Each structure stands twice: as structure tokens, then as C-alpha cells.
Amino acid sequence: MAKDSAIEWTHHTFNPWWGCTKVSPGCKNCYAQTFAHRVGRDLWGPRVARLFFGDAHWREPLKWNAEATSAGARRRVFCASMADVFENRSELISLRERLWKLITATPALDWLLLTKRPERVLKCVPWRDLWPANVWVGVTAENQHWAQERIPLLLELPAAVRFLSCEPLLGPLDLSPWLKGARRVDWVIAGGESGHKARPMNPEWARMIRNQCLSAHVPFHFKQWGHWRPDDLAAAPTRKRVEVEGAKGRVITLVRLGKHAAGRDLDGKTWDELPLRYRGMAKA
What we know:
This protein has helices at residues 31-38, 55-71, 93-104, 121-124, 144-154, 203-216, 259-262, and strands spanning 12-13, 75-79, 109-115, 135-140, 161-166, 187-191, 220-224, 228-230, 241-245, 251-256, 265-266, 269-270, 277-278, 281-282. The protein has a seven-stranded parallel β-sheet. A three-stranded antiparallel β-sheet has the order 8-10-9, with no helix packed on it. The protein has seven helices and 14 strands. 39% of the residues are buried. The model is unreliable at 278-284 (pLDDT under 50). It is an alpha/beta fold. The chain has one domain (12-282).
């Protein structure tokens, strides 16, 4: 959990527990598992116990809600950065029920529930046709296969905001079928992979998503290049480089700089767009 999170697209993070099981290629170099290992915790896999927290932990979002209410502002809460709220484990049922009550008790917080298990959402939430106005639901779409598997399920959900996290972006994506019509994606986040084993992201994959969003008037957020970025910063010749193929056979050279040095500008601009309209309500 973190107030004033370092994650660019949220204000705070809240984890009802730590731990998960990998389900798709985007999970291969899971940053959350790496962080857990760094602090001496083995929490990944179907037979491994999850890490739970006490009442003080669960009271923190109530404080955030009071602060937001006092400021007359809304705050976004990413839930959960170290888990998947919809993982199918019996010992998580009571914690999810506690989470739903917490969400209801914090109307000044917009809860961003990001999952790789959209098929389980309706089995887990207590709401049917009328959801709380402060619930956003997103799915990870790291390549075209998983976009096609997950996005249609996402669009069946009557959440206030439905969003995509195309991170780590592992291939070109055509999102255009889901960026139009009455039931469409409201917000798209994209970014490359970070960490020592990070897989390079072709810059043209990020541009494709940005251009699709611009064309459909869907807000776009470019989170990061990750460990690799185009070799346009006069990086030292000792830095490792790889080549990827661009349009019309053009060769693009990427350099390994690390997340912070690589930055998050795309074609000279920082893309921090957010949803401005939410079905059934207006927010700032």
C-alpha cells in the first residue's frame, strides 16, 4: 500500500493482500513478484500462501477519503498492485467482501480494479446492473490474443470507467473494434516492461495505440518506455543495444537505459490523458 503512489496513473495504491498466480505472457517478469522477493516474501503460485494485513492497513483508505472530501477533490486508488482482486482462492472471499464494503464507504475515491481475470468479475462483485459510481475496472492486454480474450468480457461490465493496461506491451495491438460505440473502452494505458529481464517494446506498437486512441477520441496515457527506449538520447556506446523492425523494413535501434533514464515521453510529449466523462455522472 502507498499513499501518493509512484505509479503515474494513480494517486494511491491499496492491496487487500499480496500474492498471485501467473496466467499469461505479461506475467513472465512480474514486477510485484520481484518486489516481494526483494523483501523476503515468496507469495506467487497456486499453492503458496498469500500475505494478509491488519485493521490499521484497512483503515488507510478511510483517511484518504476524508482528505479528498475535505479538499473537494477525487483521488484514484489502484487496487491491487501486488495481487489480482479476482484470483480464484477460497480464502480470499471474505477479504473481497471487506473490500466491497470499503469501496462503498469511500465515495471520494475512484477504485481502479485491474485484472487479468475478467471472466471472474461478475462472480465476485456483489453488484449486478447498478454498480457504485466510484468503481473502475480494467484488464491487461499485453498482445492481440489477450486483447481479444479479455476486452469483450470487460465491456460487458457496467463499471463507471472501463480501461486497458497495455503494459508490458509485447506486440502490436489493433484496439479499434473496442474504441467506438456505446460500449467501448474509456481509457488506454500503454508502456514497456521494466526490470533486468525486460523485453524490448517496439516504439511503433506504442504509436499504433496512441494513434488509434487519438482517432477515436479515447484518452491515452503513456506510462513508460521501461528498460529500453529508442536510441535518441546520445547514450554511452557501452550501453547494450538491440534492433527491431519498423514500418517498411526500417531498422529501429533500442538502448537499454533502465526505467528512470528511459523516461516516458513519446515523440516529445508526455501523454497523461485521463477519462473526463463517466457514464451516469460527471467528474473532474
